[in-house]
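Researcher: Here's my situation. A collaborator sent me these components and asked whether they could plausibly form a single complex. I don't have experimental data yet, so a predicted model of the whole assembly would be a useful starting point for our discussion.
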Amino acid sequence: MAVLAQATTDEIAAALAALGPPPAHVEVRPAETGLVMVRGRIGGDGAPFNLGEATATRCAVQLASGEIGFGYVLGRDGDKARLAALADALWQSADYQMAVEQNVVGPLRARQHARLARSRDETAATKVDFFTLVRGDN
Amino acid sequence: MYVAVKGGERAIDNAHRLLEQKRRGDPAVPELTLEQISEQLALACDRVMAEGSLYDRELAALAVKQARGDLVEAIFLVRAYRTTLPRFGASEPIDTGAMEIRRRISAAFKDLPGGQVLGPTFDYTHRLLDTTLGESPSPRLRGEGRERSERGEGDSPHSRAPGDPPSPGAFGADLSAQAGRGESSAMPRVTDILGNDGLIEPCPPGEADAPVGDLTRAPLTFPAARDLRLQNLARGDEGFLLALGYSTQRGYGRTHPFAGEIRLGEVEVEFMAEEVGFAVPLGAITVTECQMINQFHGSSTEPPQFTRGYGLAFGHCERKVMAMALVDRALRADDLGEERKGPAQNEEFVLSHSDNVQATGFVEHLKLPHYVDFQSELVLIRRMRAEIAAAGETQREAAE
């Protein structure tokens, strides 16, 4: 679910399309957008406090074979929540789990790792070594 | 007090039409897209998210566009929008210790585990206007198209999804090639390093199920607990907090601060969804955090320890979180047994005036019709003047 949450709607749609037409499913909870109050911690590690809200969208779909999948994603994109829920449901189905892992989650994860690696390298290039100067005698 | 007035509909409609025109500006100039605002005026969007208290980049960009770049107006729009949505609940507290760090500096320790990474910063720039940015496209970006096509990258929607970094070479030098491992080193908090030796006050984690104050649900009362103070400051006006933080440095409630650590990066947001049965990862958000280390506090039973001020906000907003940390520390005067000497230490003053939506509402409401109110003032001042004139007349007659 973490991989799906980090992916874009187009990425999930393209990956799912590669699996062929999806099996019959219904939206047991249509996509709904709301707010999640994001909490931080006092001092970073202390008691929680309310930092501010974030938009989030959730959706639940059920396959004809019974599996219920949930999509919970930041933002207001109902399609993304629906696709994430479908992928989650398919992942729970024995018939699809392998295919979802190999064709959806795997490639998306690899792509996210590549993005992260690039970002980390860019950041690492700005690492500094400060040194303090000794003042002269006068 | 203002009173309702009628009429003026046509003038108001026309004023709004004129506003539309002015917002668009010269039609010969291309219109801004939300992506352009989000990507190229990123820090404006960050401020709108932080002070609008709503993390949604696209909405922030829309608000900046609609408000013609007036950020307080944009923040107002975002705050109004959030009231239209239901709240699913509260997230698990984000773990800034596990942040995917893009910038991390300490002004207290030169050599700290994980090192100092400058990231995308204005620090050390010369603050000279760069006239090449006025050319379009900017000369430094001109290599991008050529290099991409050489490497066989097309422009299909999936070749570079939004959020992917631009292709290497786009900015003259491939920064990633200079480090080239794709790994991140562990970056413990500076406060933890001091905490291990007991040199700094700890932050108690609080009781697991203790309620967390929420000023969007219950009006602020005083004295306010630190959770409420931090919520208020996190959405407070950057300019107001900056001025207050500055005032503590100039002696109005001095706290002897050091920027122990400032970090910028992405943290995962997790939400405990009852029907799923576990904390669901929703995605990552960008936050900036400041740990301010301040001068000692001790007692007859406790040896002296450094004290702390804390700043955390949505987006990349370093100035804001530094000011927030200064003000957070100043507001702890009572807790730490310090005499309140400056405005920044007065929580009722600070917390009641930090919100720029409230402030702009009350200041700008003075524009609304106060005709009846003013009429009564006019009647009053005329009567007072008449009475004084009459009294003078009587005195003069008596003297004669």
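Model: Some features of this prediction you could bring to your collaborator: Chain B touches chain A through 91 residues (CB under 8 Å). Chain B has a mean pLDDT of 88.
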